[in-house]
């Protein structure tokens, strides 16, 4: 049986527009159009289509270091399987948690947090440990960031 590939949701021009915006989210449609050798209307139409179809989302990204938030940690979390939804809800209520995902392997959850200092890290880990149904954690302190990009399209 031969499978027919699905039509891609975005084409090369859309990818180039996304790449331009990932480098500079404030770049004007005119500048993008000029760089890609298309009309401004084409860029505007493509952009609006991608937003309307939830392919891209326009958000402001904060530089945490500029706000005094100088530490990041990843927490691997083992959970009683029947309680994973409740644990996720409690983790979502912790303000410094910026990312929570379910994972495969020994740890069912992975969370990333951004904190100001070791004291805030310690207090946050204590909050995590007080959540019922968490059986184990592994805390990894992020040291140096060597790549942080949105250019994977």
Strand proportion, as a percent range, falls in 15-25%
The SSE string, one letter per element, is HHHEHEEHE
The averaged pLDDT comes out at 90
Structural class: alpha+beta
Determine the fraction of residues in helical runs and give it as a percent range: 25-40%
Shape: elongated
Description of the structure:
The chain contains 5 helices and 4 strands. It is 35% helix and 20% strand. The mean pLDDT is 90. The protein has a 4-stranded antiparallel beta sheet with strand order 2-3-1-4, covered by helices on one side. The two termini are 30 Å apart. The chain has helices at residues 12-23, 29-36, 40-52, 84-92, 118-129; strands at 71-79, 97-102, 109-115, 134-142. The longest helix is centred in the first third of the chain and has 13 residues, at 40-52. The chain has 153 residues and is α+β, with helices and mostly antiparallel strands. The chain is elongated. Strand 2 (97-102) and strand 3 form a beta hairpin.
From the structure above, extract its key features.
alpha+beta, elongated, 4-stranded antiparallel beta sheet, single chain, 153 residues
What is the secondary structure topology, with strand pairs?
Blueprint: H1 12-23, H2 29-36, H3 40-52, E1 71-79, H4 84-92, E2 97-102, E3 109-115, H5 118-129, E4 134-142
Antiparallel strand pairs: 1-3, 1-4, 2-3
Helix pairs in contact: 2-3
Brief sketch in words of this structure:
The protein is α+β, with helices and mostly antiparallel strands and 153 residues long. The chain has 5 helices and 4 strands; from the N terminus they run H-H-H-E-H-E-E-H-E. Strands 2-3-1-4 form a 4-stranded antiparallel sheet, covered by helices on one side.
């Amino acid at each position: 049986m031969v499978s027919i590939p699905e039509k891609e949701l975005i084409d090369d021009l859309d990818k180039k527009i996304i790449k331009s915006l990932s480098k500079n989210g404030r770049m004007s449609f005119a500048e993008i159009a000029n760089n890609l050798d298309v009309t401004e209307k084409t860029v505007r139409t493509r952009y609006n289509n991608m937003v309307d179809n939830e392919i891209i989302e326009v958000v402001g990204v904060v530089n945490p270091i500029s706000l005094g938030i100088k530490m990041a940690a990843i927490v691997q979390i083992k959970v009683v399987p029947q309680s994973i939804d409740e644990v996720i809800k409690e983790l979502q209520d912790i303000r410094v948690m910026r990312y929570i995902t379910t994972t495969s392997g020994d740890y069912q959850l992975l969370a990333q947090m951004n904190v100001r200092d070791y004291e805030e890290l310690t207090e946050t880990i204590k909050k995590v440990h007080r959540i019922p149904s968490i059986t184990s954690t592994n805390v990894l302190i992020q040291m140096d960031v060597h790549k942080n990009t949105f250019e994977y399209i």
